[in-house]
Amino acid sequence: MALGNTQSRQQPRTTDVITLGLRQNLAQFMLLVAVNALVGGTLGQERTVLPLLAERVFHLDKYTSALTYILAFGLAKAATNYFAGTLSDRYGRKPVLVAGWLIALPAPLLLIFGPSWGWIVAANVVLGISQGLTWSTTVMMKMDLVGPERRGLAMGLNEAAGYLGVAGTALATGYIASSYGLRPGPFLLGAAFIAVGLGMSVLTIGETHHHAKAEAAVHVPVHAGSHAGLRNREVFTLTSFRDKSLSSVSQAGMVNNLNDGLAWGLFPVLFAAAGLSIERIGILAAVYPAVWGAGQLITGALSDRIGRKPLIAGGMLVQALALGMVALGNDFGTWLAAVVLLGAGTAMVYPTLLAAIGDVAHPEWRARSVGIYRLWRDGGFAVGALLSGIIADAYGIPAAVAVVAGLTALSGIIVAARMRGSDHRGQG
User: Fold this and answer.
1) What is d(CA 67, CA 400) in angstroms, rounded to the nearest whole number?
2) What is the CATH number of the domain that holds 30?
3) Where does it reside (predicted)?
4) Is residue 16 part of a domain?
C-alpha cells in the first residue's frame, strides 16, 4: 500500500511515498521498540523498591495508605491516556512522545529526596502522566507504521520491549537495594533511562501520523459502526459500551491492570512477611514481567493467526488460576511457579487487547480509541489499589488476592460470551 501525502513540517514532502508494513519501516520500528524498553524501565524502578519503602522507611501500617502511590499513578496515567490520543491526532505523535519524557524528569528526584510519603505520591502522579504520554504514543506509532496485516506482531514486540524493561529494572533495583539501600541507588537507574529516552526521542524518532492518514484513505471497515467522522463522545461510547468487541476489550484491560496493581503493591509485602530476602523478592518481582514481556513475542503474532478472542479469554482465566496459587502459597517455589503462570496469562492478553482495538477502530479515530481503552485499562490500577487495600486491611493479603482472582475469571467469561471472534480477519 503506498500513497502520497503533503503538508506540515513533520510530514513527508509531496515527492515522498508512504509505505505501510513492518519490513518497510523496520529501522524506525526498532528504534521505537528501544524507546519503549526505556519507558518500561522507567516504571520498573519502582516495582521492587517502593512497597518496601512504604513499610520500612515511611512506616505505613495500613495497606490502603501504602497503595496510594498506585492509586495516584493509575488515575494520572488513565486520564493522560485519554488525552494522548486526541493530542497526537492534533499535534502529531512525536511532540507528545517528547513531552512525556520531559514531564518524567523530576520523578527520580522526588523518589530520592522525598521527606514524606506525599512526595512519593506526587512522584507517581508525574510518572503516571509521563507514562500515559510515552507508552500510548509508542503504541500508536507502531500501529501507524505496520498497517493492518501484522498488527498483533507489532503490539507483541512493543509490549515485550516495555515489560522486559520493567522486569530487568525490577531485578536490577532489587540487587542495588540489597547492597546500597532503598534510596538513592535504585532510582538513579530510572534517571538514566529518562535521559536516554528523551535523547533518542528527540534525535532519532520521526513522525508517523501521516502513515495513519494513508491507511485511512483505503481502509475497509470491519463492521457497521467502524467508520470515519466520529466525534470524541461517539468514539468514547463506542469503545466503552456500544461496540461488543471494543467494550469487551476495555473491561478486560481494566481487570488485567487491576490484578497487576495488586501484584505491584502487595506481592512484595506478602513475600517479605513470609521471610523472603530482598534479592528473592526482586527475583519474583522480575520474573512476572519477564515472562509477560518475552511471551508477547509469541502471543502477539499468534493472535494474527488464530484470532484475538481465544487468547484474551484464555489469558484472563490463566491469570485467575495464577492469582489463586499466590493466595494459597507460602514459599518461594510455589510463588515462583505462580508468577510464571501470571506472566504467561498476561502475555496472552496484553498485546492482543491492543491489536483488537486496532482491528475495529477506524484509522481516523484509532488513536482516540486506543487512548480511551488505555483510560479504562490503567484506571484498573486505581481500582485495584483501593479494592485490594481495603480487603487486605480487613482480611489480609491472601483474601485480597483471592477476590481479585475471582474478578479476573469473571472478566474472561465476559470476553468469551460477548466479544466477536473474527474481527482480526476483516482487515487487509
Assistant:
1) 13
2) 1.20.1250.20
3) Cell membrane
4) no
Q: How confident is the model at residue 219 (pLDDT cuts 50, 70, 90)?
A: low
Cis peptide bond prior to 268, omega within 30° of 0:
no
Q: What is the pLDDT of residues 36-66, one digit of tens each?
A: 999 999 999 988 888 888 888 998 878 887 7
DSSP 424: G
Domain around 286: 22-209+222-425
Domain assignment present for residue 176? The answer is: yes
- State the burial class of residue 375 (Cβ atoms within 10 Å of its Cβ: 0-12, 13-18, 19+): buried
User: What's the number of CA atoms in the CB half-sphere (13 Å) around residue 358?
Assistant: 29
Would the pLDDT of 224 be above 70?
Answer: no
CA distances from 180 to 43, 76, 403 (A): 20, 31, 36
**Cα–Cα dist 84/350, whole Å:** 19
pLDDT tens digits for range 309-340: 999 999 999 999 999 999 999 999 999 999 99
pTM of the model: 0.78
pLDDT value of position 27 = 92
| Contact of 48 with 285, CB cutoff 8 Å | yes
Q: How far apart are CA 47 and CA 251, in angstroms?
A: 24
- Name the β-bridge partners of 401: none
- At 259-306, the pLDDT tens digits run 988 998 899 989 999 999 988 998 998 899 889 888 988 998 898 889
> Among the residues of 92-184, which ranges form H helices?
93-104, 107-113, 117-146, 151-180
Total of domains in the chain = 1
Domain contains 216 = no
Q: Residue 132 in contact with residue 76, Cβ under 8 Å?
A: yes
The residues with which 19 forms a beta bridge, in sequence order, are 2
Q: Kindly report, residue by residue over 115-167, the tens digit of the pLDDT.
A: 999 999 999 999 999 999 999 899 889 888 887 777 778 888 888 898 889 88
Using CB atoms within 10 Å of the CB of residue 378, give its burial: 0 to 12 exposed, 13 to 18 middle, 19+ buried: buried
**Cα torsion for 22, 25, 26, 27, to the nearest 10°?**
-160
